[in-house]
Amino acid sequence: MIGRRAGSLLVATLAGIAAAAVPFASAEPARPGVPDQEIVTPITGDPGLGDDVQATYVRLHYPSPFSTMAHPEACDWISYVRYRSTAGPAATADADAVLTVQPGTFSSAANLDIQAPQVVRKAAAQGKHVEYIALVRRSSCAEDRTGWQAAQQAGDYHVAADYYFHDKPVNGQTYHYQTPQDLAFLGEYGLSLVLDDWRAVIEHLLPDPGQRTKMFCGGHSLGAFLTGPMMAWNFAGDPAAADYAGFNLCGGGIIPEDGFAMTDPAGLSGTGLLDQFASAAGGAVKNMINAVLQGGLSVAQFPVLSASEVLHAYEVAAMAADQQPDAESDLKTVIPRDLRTEPWMRTFYGKDYLDLFTGANLPSDFRLTNTAALAMDFDQNSAEYVLQAGLGFYDCPVAGKTYPVPNGLASVPILGPTLFVIPMRVGYGQNYTPAAHDQLCGWRNYDQVWPSGIDAPGIGHGPPTDSDHEVTDVRQFAHAMNPGWQPASYFEEYTSFRLITDMVFALGLGRDGDLANLQYRSGGILNFLLHGDRWQSTPAGRRNLTLLSGDSPVQNAGLGGLLPYNAKYIPGYRHYDVVTAAEKQNNGLPEPASSYIAAFMTQPTG
């Protein structure tokens, strides 16, 4: 048992550590910075816009106060894509509602190309003019878009493949593969920088704080999880300065998609000194990790497995599918199989465990149309990872996979149903590859698959998929992913690890330094046990529309009670589908995710 004197000494020590870790707020909080220049470029070439939706690419000059290392001049700009109704007001301030959206991990604004016009169009049908703002995170400044632009101008995806993979110059410029050391400055691109950029965009769009009750903040995947810290953030560092609070910037509410908002899942905010000590102790670990990230390990650029090269391979496939959808793919000859991409392909596309060692039965081993080659990379009946969409199905004989688990495992008595309480694989029940290497395989689009029965087929039985589980138009998906025709990419090649680690510390242990601004926390486990507060740690005080893909593994968070009670589940959707599903669905009903969002933004709040 600790004596009274020793106990007092311990409390005093903890209080001293906590006081040293949490700086005193200034009496007059400094106003956060604002952009000083705007460049607006119209976007054309997207059939999804129709004649009733306009898209523009907006760049704002705003050197970040959180970026102190040497960096390219392009990194002093932030950007977004603005979608608005052509029948609506020209000024954002005059719109009925505005939604700013953060994309997911390794994703950028074009990831939202398909959903954005649908939201604007559906709101307009109700007599409301809303704007959809697809955000581009600052780390996109490190990307080299030379090859995509040249390939688009030439109408030939081979130009891009030659530039990014075969050292062929474009206008005298050659592609430089950037190492983690080249990108060390991205080690500063953490949560504080991303949220401050988000704030700067909101204040630029709606300078009058009184109008921000019509501002909504949303996100997909990682972007969905960013909505929690955004709502709980105080940009002045003073909890009394509510005008600088994220929940007032996002005054209309939040819209997380296939992810969910949290502010303090452990519930430490109600534990006093324990919370302060945990922040200080975790902060020491955070500072060591940040030093490593800024020393040259800021992004996923490794000798074995390189994010940028994998994403370049996907984008070349998308450009090929967009330019020549029905031609036989030659990607196997234009995209090299090397250590930067091969481990990824073996891990996520093999037919069986032997393929992990032999490299057989990968997409490059089959004869495919360009559309089938792209779809094989992302369809939920092919790819073994979370970035999936229901794009249709192969138009050729297929063979079932036994990797990572065999098709039909759920049909094994006792064992199968027990294992599938939590989905053992990301794909919908059964995953396949083409049956033969020498037969050309095409692709059935989402609206060309088998009709749904009254009872869905059991896993391992019936057709491999049905129209209830195929919801995204593969042609529209290819166009959105093609980086040639648009200024914002589908992928973020250099997602900063600092953003991920900062999220872990901010929502767990380590809210000191620049993360001390996460000040409006609520709910959480310990807070529930000690004070009877909510178990869920969703932001308090504003409306919340959480949309979850019905076949996505994200929904398993519900087993831990982490999801809000009113989350909406969209049956048959995979992780990408919630933002990529086609406006015209197989069941004849309007696309539900965009319908939910448009209704949420336009319904009365009084």
Description:
This protein is α/β, with parallel strands linked by helices and 606 residues long. Helix content is 31%, strand content 11%. It has a seven-stranded mixed beta sheet with strand order 1-2-3-5-4-6-7, with helices on both faces. Strand 4 (97-102), helix 2 (115-125) and strand 5 (130-136) form a beta-alpha-beta unit. Helix 8 packs antiparallel against helix 16. The chain is globular. The model is unreliable at 1-29, 424-428 and 456-460 (pLDDT under 50).
Low-confidence stretches: 1-29, 424-428, 456-460
How are strands sequenced across the largest beta sheet? 1-2-3-5-4-6-7
State the share of residues found in helices, binned by percent: 25-40%
Number of strands: 13
Q: Report the portion of residues in β strands.
A: 5-15%
Shape: globular
Per DSSP, the total helix count is 19
Radius of gyration: 24 Å
Major sheet characteristics: 7 strands, mixed
Question: Would you kindly provide a brief summary of this structure?
Answer:
This protein has 19 helices and 13 strands. The chain is an alpha/beta fold and 606 residues long.
Main attributes of the structure:
606 residues, alpha/beta, seven-stranded mixed sheet, two-stranded antiparallel ribbon, 19 helices, 13 strands, disordered N terminus
